[in-house]
Amino acid sequence: MCHSDGVRVESIPKVRALGAFVDLVEGLPQVMAAAKDTAGRYLYVNRGFAERVGRRARDIVGRTVEDFFAAELAVSYAAQDAEVLRTGKPLQGHLELIVRADGRLGWYLTSKTRLVSDGGDVVGVAVMSVDLQSQMDSAHSGLATALDAVRADIAHPWRVREIADIAGLSATQLERLSRRTLGMAPRGVLQRLRLEQAVRLLSTTSLTAGEIASACGFYDQSSFTRQFRAVLGLTPGAYRRASGLFT
After folding, report:
1. In 3D, which of 229, 140, 228 has the Cα closest to residue 179?
2. What CATH number does the domain located at 135-245 have?
3. Nearest residue to 32 (alpha-carbon basis) of 60, 51, 19
4. May I ask the CATH architecture of the domain 2-131?
5. C-alpha span between 3 and 19 (Å, rounded)
6. Which helix H or strand E contains 99, and what residues bound it?
7. What's the pTM?
8. What's the mean pLDDT in 202-223?
């Protein structure tokens, strides 16, 4: 049995690992967690996931990603699940930009792994996404100052050395601090901030993809499109078309 928001979910019989997973993630407000069967139906979601999609957990269980996410994103998420189920290789630390139910942007590190029954059968996927925004908000004061500076001039061709100087750290110290607190190297954080601004511009302006690439400091439109798709799972144009579907 799994419990979420007062819901008793007859999940997957004889999967003790699922019960342990639920115990681990249920009370973590900065974590979105879910378990799905091999057909993609939600068996369990924690409070963080329910709040993300703006629904009660009981209204999510039994449904699929297509019911809660824009079409292109749903396809991307389902493809991730299918690959994990097919290969047995976990998805670990995948950076994703998620639009929350209130319209705010949030960065998450997502991991997925197969759920296996006590008899050895593959019966589903367990998913956990950790909210990076809390780490950003509570970062080392020097690092936080540097991130604010980058956001204020996102089109600048930033180098790690410049960011480290603003943070009052050596490049090596910045690298270690960034990996420890944010789970990624400074270059990854810089990419995150550029994409964050690009998403805002796609959602709120009529600028072309090329204009947005330039405004956000990408080398060119091709590089922008490639990096955007690698992180968000769809092209800038597809994201713009889907952005009105986030609720």
Report:
1. 140
2. 1.10.10.60
3. 51
4. 2-Layer Sandwich (3.30)
5. 9
6. strand 91-99
7. 0.67
8. 93
